[in-house]
Amino acid sequence: MVVENSNQLKESSDFTYDREAEVKAFDDSKVGVKGLVDSGVSKIPRMFYTRKLEISESTASDSKLSIPIVDLKDIHINPAQRVEVIDQIRSACHEWGFFQVINHEIPIIVLDEMIDGICRFHEQDADVRKEFYTRDLKKKVSYYSNVRLFNGQGANWRDTFGFAIAPDPFNPDEVPQICRDIVIEYSQKIKNLGFTIFELLSEALGLNPSYLKEFGCAEGLFTLGHFYPTCPEPELTMGSTAHTDSTFMTLLLQDQLGGLQVLHEDKWVNVPPVHGALVVNIGDLLQVNILTLNIRQLNLLL
User: Fold this and answer.
1) What pLDDT does 64 receive?
2) How many domains, the chain?
3) Taking CA atoms, which of 134, 194, 216, 238 is between 20 and 30 Å from 49?
4) CATH number of the domain that residue 92 is part of
5) DSSP code per residue over 77-100
């Protein structure tokens, strides 16, 4: 049976399909989704079928809604501006759990070159990419397709290149030459920005600026460069299904193609790219930490 839309996915299942074998063959190829595209496939493997397409352009909510944009300009030299920014972040976290930051002191040219560098890595010949393909989470530099490929759920149509920044950073010599310089530069700058955001979040909680950093929120840092090759059957799969980030915080650098959506008051809202901006996503661990802190404060009042 040829599956033409998501409503037929259930009908297409049969007892002869061996997902485990298909997944293993795909993973053993070590060339990811890009390898499928390069091979000229016109039909995507069934392992990529997404049974419930939660997000699409047609289901996006009112375009008038947009996540807050916070301007960090002069926050280190202008106390009044810093107080205003902290208030904006507090409101954004409470109402959205997301916000974008601009004037964050990472030059746009660095952001653009980082996107280009990640693309250059993924667009290399398959034999070059294969050298970095691994599922060993202890590796400081890794290339793979879908971290949970074997969990039985529909795989995402994307490949990933990642590297550890903290607490045990990657060895520069382990990073491919094709993107080494920008990866090193971006890693340091994004790490510094992360410290700044944690300071602002701490103050937004009414705490000492160093609270979240001392708590350990900034100890681990890992950067992922996702790559979404053109899909021959985009109606059957997704680059990223609905999820929450299990981290303390995610700083997301978008390209200019768009596609990101966030859930706000039970509605999916598009997040159009803002050139030079970074999206801040409050992760599950930070939310748990905030909840625990609020409970402690409540106990003190009782």
Assistant:
1) 73
2) 1
3) 134
4) 2.60.120.330
5) T-HHHHHHHHHHHHHHHHHTSEEE
How far is Cα 124 from Cα 282, in angstroms, rounded to an integer? 33
Give 164's Cβ-side CA count (13 Å radius).
16
In a 10 Å sphere around its CB, with 0-12 CB exposed, 13-18 middle and 19+ buried, how is residue 278 labelled? buried
Q: What angle do CA 188, 262, 293 make, to 5 degrees?
A: 70
For residue 30, which of 127, 137, 161, 123 has the smallest C-alpha distance?
127
pLDDT for the residue numbered 192: 96
| Total length of the chain | 302
Does residue 180 fall inside a structural domain? yes
**Cα distance between residue 128 and residue 155, in whole Å:** 23
Please check whether residue 118 lies inside any domain of the structure. yes
What's the whole-model pTM score? Answer: 0.87
Establish if 300 belongs to a structural domain.
no
What's the confidence (pLDDT) of residue 59?
55
Q: Which residue numbers in the chain have pLDDT < 70?
A: 1-15, 51-63, 291-302
28 located within any domain = yes
Q: Which of 274, 249, 121, 260 is nearest to 191 (CA)?
A: 249
Range of the domain at 145: 19-52+69-294
- Cα–Cα distance measured from residue 212 to residue 190, given in angstroms and rounded to the nearest whole number: 17
Q: Which residues of 3-17 are buried (b: 16+ CB within 10 A; e: fewer)?
A: beebeebeeeeeeee
Q: Distance (Å, rounded) from C-alpha 74 to C-alpha 82?
A: 8
What confidence score (pLDDT) does residue 279 get? 98
- Which helix or strand (DSSP H or E) is residue 286 part of? helix 284-301
